[in-house]
Each structure stands twice: as structure tokens, then as C-alpha cells.
Design goal:
This protein is mainly α and 321 residues long. The protein is built from 15 helices and 2 strands. Strands 1-2 form a two-stranded antiparallel sheet. Keywords: Magnesium, Metal-binding, Transferase.
């Protein structure tokens, strides 16, 4: 990212941060405290950054750019409050989770409040923006339900998993690119391309997170390595193993059949997974999603923001090792 673009991004993110805090403020002190809980905990602000980068393909100073970046971040934060309740998570971003600090009810209602505040901002951005957000929200909910209930008996588990990734993670990241370009007045074909490419980046990012959950020896993925194994969540490398008919994979398939709460069995499964060719296959799948995103980005005007987005494709791949 060149210096001029980096300076614009930093100023834009500062503006996003200020409007975020202003938007979540309430006359009720508890609601304000609970709403600010995750805002002040930090985070990558990945989605607002994509809004700002996409806006570079039009008028990046347009009035709707910053509010739309706040909308996607509020939506993302709201889902985290709800996720922590469903997962009974004690921590989020290194802080005590809202459900642990207060109650599940407070956490759920706080998430609802953030959705409401996002809708309030959207009302000033036009009916198209409202419709896009509503459809994105529907995909988020659908993805969560599909992940919760799992694939139907006759469904392809891998296809089901990738659809969950697209709905739960890719959809809001796609909307980030769409909002940025749309609010900046970019041509419709540019808006469509950024929407599609950002969704692919989002899927690739989530796939890389799932690989890191197995491969990382540290907390690089943001959670304790092997968390998905303990919770019985079937991620991409595991699905590749479970689809194998190789006799040598029988023990690992047996271990992956259910959540692994025993420490010794968990260590065994993690060791077998890390050494399995399924890890390289999952990395190749992730690389393909990133390359498909790059191919779409290369059809866009050659502006500094395009190079930054291409850099994100490289980063998603490099973080998996």
C-alpha cells in the first residue's frame, strides 16, 4: 500500500472509529457500557477497511462511505455478541465476553441494539442499501442455522461447509466491498466485481482460519489450537480426511467422528491431522479461492487500492504456512 493510500485509510478508519462510538452511545449507562464492550476491545476492522478500499474506485470522500463502513462493523460486532452466547464463550478479543461479564440476555439484547443502530444509519443511505443489508442479514442467519444443524443426510458435507462459509463470513465481506464502491458512485460493473471478489476473499480468510486452528502452535488463529476438534466442528481438512477411503486413515476418521474432549485423544487427532495430506489439500483450496478473487480484481482499473486488495489475497494464503 503506497503512502498516500495508507494515509487515507488511516484517516478513514479514525473517522469510522469516532462514528462507531457515537452510534453505540445510549442514554442508558448499562446499554452504552455493554455496546462499547467489543468496540473498545479493538479488532482488525477488516470490513470497514474493505469499504474504504472499495470506495477508492469512485469518490472516496462521498458522504455515505464512512456510515456504510460503520454499518458493516456494527453488524459484525452484533453477530459476535450472539455467537458468544451460542458458543458459551468466556473470552472475546482477549476480554471477558459480554455474556460472561453480564448475562446471556444482556449479550443478546446488546447484539440486537447494534443491529438496530446499524439500521438507523442505513435509513439515510437509501432503499438499495437497506435491501442489501437485509439480504446480507438473511444470509448470516441462514449460515448460522446451517452450521448448527449440519448437512442433511443426503447432502454433500463439503458443499454444505463451503455454503456455510460463504453465508456466515463471505456475505458481510462481500457487502463491505459493495457498499464502498456503491456509496462512492463507482460504475455498476466495478461494484459487481468488488462484491464478488470480496466474497471470495472472505471465504478464503475463513478457510485459512480453519487451517490455522489445526496447524498453529500458538494463538495465531485467535483461539486455542484444536478448538474445532474439541467442539466437533468439521472444517475443511477434516472433511477431506472423512471423505477418504484409505485404510491408513481409519484411526483418524474414527477420532473425527465426534467431539474430542479427552486430552490424550485430542493430542493424537491433532498430531495425525497436522501430518496428513489433507492439510496441503486444504491450503490448495484456500489458495484457489484467493486466486479466483485476484483474477476478478485484475479486471478493475489499475489504482493503488487494487494493489492493496491483491495484497490481501497474498496475505490470506501466506498466513496458512
Amino acid at each position: 500500500m503506497d503512502d498516500a493510500l495508507a494515509a487515507q485509510m488511516q484517516q478513514g478508519l479514525d473517522d469510522v472509529e469516532a462514528l462507531l462510538l457515537e452510534t453505540v452511545h445510549s442514554e442508558d449507562s448499562l446499554l452504552t457500557e455493554a455496546s462499547e464492550h467489543l468496540v473498545v476491545a479493538g479488532g482488525k476492522r477488516f470490513r470497514p477497511m474493505l469499504v474504504l478500499l472499495a470506495a477508492q474506485f469512485g469518490d472516496a470522500s462521498a458522504v455515505g462511505v464512512i456510515p456504510s463502513a460503520v454499518v458493516v462493523e456494527l453488524t459484525h460486532l452484533a453477530t459476535l455478541y450472539h455467537d458468544d452466547v451460542m458458543d458459551e464463550a468466556p473470552l472475546r478479543r482477549g476480554q471477558v465476553s459480554a455474556n460472561s461479564r453480564w448475562t446471556n440476555t444482556i449479550a443478546i439484547l446488546t447484539g440486537d441494539y447494534l443491529f438496530a443502530r446499524a439500521s438507523d444509519l442505513l435509513a439515510d443511505l437509501g432503499s438499495d442499501a437497506v435491501r442489501i443489508q437485509a439480504r446480507t442479514f438473511a444470509r448470516l442467519v441462514r449460515g448460522q442455522i446451517q452450521e448448527t444443524v449440519g448437512p442433511e443426510a443426503d447432502a454433500d458435507p463439503l458443499k454444505h461447509y463451503l455454503q456455510v462459509m460463504a453465508d456466515k463470513t463471505g456475505s458481510l465481506i462481500a457487502t463491505s466491498g459493495q457498499f464502498g464502491a456503491m456509496m462512492a458512485g463507482a460504475p455498476s460493473h466495478v461494484v459487481d466485481t468488488l462484491t464478488s471478489a470480496c466474497e471470495k476473499i472472505g471465504v478464503a480468510f475463513q478457510l485459512s482460519d480453519d487451517i490455522l486452528d489445526i496447524a498453529s502452535e500458538s494463538f495465531q488463529s485467535g483461539k486455542t489450537p484444536g478448538t474445532d476438534l474439541r467442539e466437533g466442528i468439521k472444517t475443511l481438512p477434516m472433511l477431506h480426511v472423512l471423505a477418504s477411503s484409505e485404510p491408513g486413515d481409519a484411526r483418524l476418521r474414527e477420532l473425527l467422528a465426534a467431539p474430542i474432549t479427552d486430552d490424550d485423544l485430542h493430542a493424537e487427532a491433532l498430531s495425525l491431522l497436522r501430518a496428513h495430506p489433507a492439510m496441503d489439500r486444504a491450503r490448495a483450496d484456500t489458495r484457489q479461492w484467493a486466486e479466483d478473487a485476484r483474477a476478478e480484481l485484475l479486471t478493475l482499473p489499475d489504482v493503488p487500492a487494487r494493489g492493496a486488495l491483491e495484497g490481501l489475497c497474498d496475505y490470506v494464503v501466506s498466513r496458512t504456512g
